[in-house]
Amino acid sequence: MHIFMLKLEKTKRDSIKQFFLDLFYIMRHTHTRLGIFSITKKIIILMMTSYLIVGALFYQYTQKVSFPSLLSHQEQQMDSIALFTTAEISHIPELNSDRLNYVKRKILENSHIFNIFISSHSISVGENLAVAPNMHLYYLKKQPLLAKKYRFEDGYFIIYFKADQYVQEVQGIVNTAYLTFMLMFITLLVVAIVLKLTLLPFTQLSSLMTSIDYNAPVSYSLPKVSSKDERYDLISAFKTLSFKQQEYANRLNDLNLSLEDKIYKKTLQLQELNDSLEHKIKNEVTQNRQKDKILSEQSRFAALGEMIGNIAHQWRQPLSAISTATGNAKIENMLGIATKESLDDTFNRIDEYIQYLSDTIDDFRNYFKKDKKKKAYYIDEILKTALSISKGSLNDIRIIQDKVNFKIKLIGYPSELMQVLINIFNNAKDILEEKDLAKKYLLISMSKTSTHIIIKVYDNAGGISKDHLSSIFDPYFTTKHKAQGTGIGLYMSKEMIEKHMKGSLTASNRSFDVDGTEYIGACFTIALPYN
Length: 531
Ligand SMILES: Nc1ncnc2c1ncn2[C@@H]1O[C@H](COP(=O)(O)OP(=O)(O)OP(=O)(O)O)[C@@H](O)[C@H]1O
Ligand SMILES: [Mg+2]
Known about the structure:
The protein has 531 residues and is an alpha+beta fold.
């Protein structure tokens, strides 16, 4: 505002232009602050601004418009008086002091004229200010007595005259301004009070709206308005809105309650279902474990059965040799031809056979012993033992071993691995016996990758039919007669290799070459991790 007032001192055009520029500047910079003011404050500010503008324009008017025009009016008056006076004086043939005084008195009858002088020389205006006893001091200071000098034949005729008409007019304008400003101020006050009172319901309503609990029953009292104006409309609208809101809140509450109830019931049902499911799962798990146990037992019994066959087969030859040896010794003894040497020889041979029998039994016992803990073993040794156990039943099958002397130490369950190998050998034997082949082969090869030892067992029985290939590892899958097979051999083998030893057991149909002839059959591949 300060800048604004200062700038208005410039020329009229410039100052008006500057005024609008400043107003725009003020509005731009105060807009954000004005934004937080209440409507009453905003209106008061607006009114005050417009009052200031009016005041400033009024000031401009008194300064620049009224003063010069008033002056010229007064001067015109004075000119006419002067003209009349000089004419009067000029007509007097002899200008004595009496005459002059008469004229002076006459002229001074004009209330605007303060004093007149006849001077022989020109005097500057304002020289005789001190002789203005009844002059308003302010006026003297602010504005010198208006003076005009007119030349006549014998000197100068100087008229001082009062500018009180001007003073009065200016005073009048100033008084009007005061009055206007007083009125404006009173209007401002009245407007502020009226606005405050008018907007009171809005204020009350907004504080009510923020403090209200919409979930509780309607218990608040709304602001009262006597006239049916916009405030009344707004309050009525709010009333309707709050009732609706409460209705919705009630509905929501009901919905919530019913939902909670539903959720509770569903949770109970779910809980029951969960309990029964848990129970079922537990049962299933137990049953599964039992099944597994039974399967494992069955597999062991099947292996045991096969083994007893193998033992019988392997013992037949040494037993008959022992029987022959003892029979011969008996006859020699009866005939009296038995010498100490021949008897020693017979006993030694029997000892050897017994040792052989004992070894076979040890092998079988070791094989049948279930591994409880992992232990270190040499893969080639296990293969050798498995072959020696199965050898008895492999009869006319030629066993070809290809690079099987890998001296590699593995950590695991050697007797389980042996059981797997014997299973595979027995399967090959079964299928080879079934087929009427001129030559029967069992080819065993060993190889090594950076992570695994791989044992492959081939036979030349023609392979596994495509339909069976995906089922042979399933429990109880067998193509054999009931008396011959249970169908758990490969299932258990896969379990042991994959679950216990973290290896893999797979089957495919492959061809292989023996002495330039190609043979085809099943190929079982065991891969075991080492290191
Ligand atoms: N070398 C093979 N050649 C062709 N088929 C085979 C061979 N080995 C296994 N099979 C097929 O896989 C089936 C399942 O073999 P698995 O060893 O699991 O059971 P099984 O030998 O029938 O009975 P057991 O439980 O007594 O071992 C066999 O019945 C047979 O049909
Ligand atoms: Mg089998």
